[in-house]
Amino acid sequence: MTPETSIIPRHVGIIMDGNGRWAKKRGQPRTSGHREGLETAKRIVAHASDVGISFLSLYAFSTENWRRAEEEVNFLMGLIKTHLRKQYDFYKERGIRVTHSGDLERIPQGVRDEILLAEEDTRSFDGMTVNILVNYGGRDEIVRAASRYLADGGDPHSLDEDALASNLDHPEIPDLDLMIRTGGEIRLSNFLIWQAAYAELFFSDVFWPDWDVDHFDEALKYFEQRQRRFGGIPG
Ligand code: IPE
Ligand code: IPE
Ligand code: MG
């Protein structure tokens, strides 16, 4: 497929929001919104890979989402686990590498195992990287990076941006170019705080289960029209 835009962001991050409200609007339980949201995620992953995105970060479960009802939390964990187990062929076909960002420790063992297995099984693939954020918080990642630096014997007085960045969960993944949030809220909700420092921001009112490849293309179009200055003066 030919990309519709000429300037393609290298790293796109999506806050996949609005599943619960999508379900509520239909008189269905929130969980059915999550099930439908997973279908959207697959659609968008395939499309992003087709148009040549190199890194796609998907916010699946935040460090704050544990505050939700146990039933919803369990459902989301189950969904992540079965998806990773069943989608190996989907990733293999497209050469998609799966990575995870977030604190693995609090994630239930069964889900953690599937995450580690998916990372292991897709490590050698050379297509797009899908970075799945589970038990992820931007602040938490920064704190864990600083701890890692110190635990490795780093000098507290020499801690600088490069040293911190190289201790993030995936130092090989570049800064975020385009951040998309669906579902109508205009906030970051602790998403890739460090990496989004100079990201372009695209907000969509559409609930995630209703999101389609055309919406994604619209976000790419928006990105293409931005003039990125990174604090400098355009020449
Ligand atoms: C986003 O949808 C998915 C997760 C947070 C896991 P929500 O569940 O937050 O849906 P809304 O925002 O309540 O509609
Ligand atoms: C952000 O959405 C987290 C994910 C999409 C996984 P939330 O629905 O949790 O964020 P808030 O509560 O509206 O800020
Ligand atoms: Mg939400």
Which hetero ligands occur in this complex? 3-methylbut-3-enyl trihydrogen diphosphate, magnesium ion
Order of helices and strands: EHHEHHEHEHHEEH
CATH superfamily: Decaprenyl diphosphate synthase-like
Q: Round the Cα radius of gyration to an integer and report it.
A: 18 Å
The chain-level mean pLDDT equals: 96
Beta-strand segment tally: 6
Q: Which class in CATH terms?
A: Alpha Beta
How many structural units, i.e. domains? 1
Provide the CATH architecture: 3-Layer(aba) Sandwich
Overall outline = globular
N- and C-termini, Cα separation: 34 Å
Describe the sheet with the most strands: 6 strands, parallel
CATH topology term: Undecaprenyl pyrophosphate synthetase
Residue share in β-strands: 5-15%
Contiguous helical run count:
8
